[in-house]
Amino acid sequence: MSVTIEARLLNGTDLGRTIGTFGTLESVSHGTMQVEVEEDNGNLIPMKFKAVKITTSTGEYALTPSTKISIAGKRSPEAGQ
């Protein structure tokens, strides 16, 4: 059984579960990432955004907190936590 949740709800209790097509969750962290975006004129503009970084059996990924993901073996948040 799997349920669809937002990435912001992932935490350490989800380690070892299958996350959609990403593979088995090995680590998860929440924070702010900074990237540089190149403008048309060649200038680099720093941009910050909130992200959920996950490491899985297939690699590392940065997701926006609102990204919908499927996770195996987790109860629905509406199921009365």
SSE layout and pairings?
Blueprint: E1 2-6, E2 18-19, E3 23-38, E4 44-56, E5 59-63, E6 68-72
Antiparallel strand pairs: 1-6, 2-3, 3-4, 4-5
Description:
- It is elongated, with a radius of gyration of 15 Å.
- The chain has a four-stranded antiparallel beta sheet, with no helix packed on it. Strands 1-6 form a two-stranded antiparallel ribbon.
- The chain has 81 residues and is mainly β.
- The protein has strands spanning 2-6, 18-19, 23-38, 44-56, 59-63, 68-72.
SS-derived structural category: mainly beta
How far apart the termini lie comes to 17 Å
- Looking at the structure, what is the overall shape? elongated
Portion in strands: over 45%
Question: Radius of gyration, rounded?
Answer: 15 Å
Number of helices: 0
Order of helix and strand elements from N to C terminus: EEEEEE
- Widest β-sheet, arrangement of strands: 2-3-4-5
Helix content: under 10%
The total count of strands amounts to 6
Task: Report on the biggest sheet.
Answer: 4 strands, antiparallel
Question: Low-confidence parts lasting 5 or more residues at pLDDT below 50?
Answer: none
Mean pLDDT: 89
